[in-house]
Write the structure tokens for this entry.
Amino acid sequence: MKFFVDTADVKEIRELNALGLLDGVTTNPSLILKSGGDIKKVTKEICSIVDGPVSAEVVATEYDQMMREAKILAKIASNVCIKVPLTLDGLRACKSIRSDLNRDVNVTLCFSANQALLAAKAGATFISPFVGRIDDTGSDGMELIAEIKTIYDNYDFTTEILTASVRTVNHVKQAALIGAHVVTAPPATLRALVSHPLTDKGLAAFLADWAKTGQKIG
Ligand code: G3P
């Protein structure tokens, strides 16, 4: 399973990348706003840190302008993955970006299996179902991940399921159990994956006993 971090915070990206666990980055207009930076400068800096795909989102809603923006974003770096919304214009842009610009495309704001089916038919590299926002409405976001997995497997679609709007470590585990290809999570959620009270307790006990031996390894 690939781990992407869902942030435009360059400091956080640097720290997580240094751990060697990062396969890519996802940003969106809200995350760019939060970063306080210019989209082109921030995206360029992120692309220089991380080797994998860095999703940068178009903000146009109409095909021609989406394509203009996609070309500008694609020029920033070779690992920019163009993010488009799950609309008819977005799907048309997805197809064109894949064939004409030969770029990875992340189709975002997916809330149904049929939307994911359309994105796969449009040749999307990634489909981003927003599990947390579905949970917020009282439905189960993970059911959608399972449905998309079944549909993509049924037809051997190569589009990767990028589980997004991840809020908890349980989302990560459930996505992995279903077989989603990628999870994108906020930095705090990625860090929380390592935590277990018994690990902390066990380490403290080992270190206490080690101190009693009076020995040194190096
Ligand atoms: O990158 C899109 C997605 O992960 C947004 O998450 O928490 O705003 O629903 P959230």
Remarks:
- The first helix runs from residue 10 to 18.
